[in-house]
Amino acid sequence: MKSKKIFLHILFMVLVVTAIPAVQANAGVKNDGSDEEIDSFFEQEETFDPLESLNRVFFVVNDKLYYWVLKPVSTAYTAVLPQDVRLGLGNFFVNVAAPVRVVNNLLQGKVGDAGIDFQRFLINSTLGFAGFGDPAKEAFGIKAKPEDFGQTLGVWGLGEGAYLYLPFLGPLTCRDAVGFVGNAALHPATYVLTDFPEEAAYTGTDKVNLMSLHPGLYEDMKKNSLDPYISIRQAYLEYRRNKVLDKDVKTNVFREE
Amino acid sequence: MKNTIMKDTITKYTHIMALLAACTFVFASSALALPAPTDEIKPTLNAIITILLDPALKGEEKKTERRTKIMAYVNSGFDFREMSQRVIGKEWRELTPEKQDHFQRLFTKLLENAYIGKFESYSGQEIQYLGERIKDDRAIVTTQIENNGQFIPIDYVMIKKEVKWMVYDINIEGVSLVRNYMEQFKAILRRDKFDGLVKLLEDKNSTFE
Question: Model pTM?
Answer without folding.
Answer: 0.78
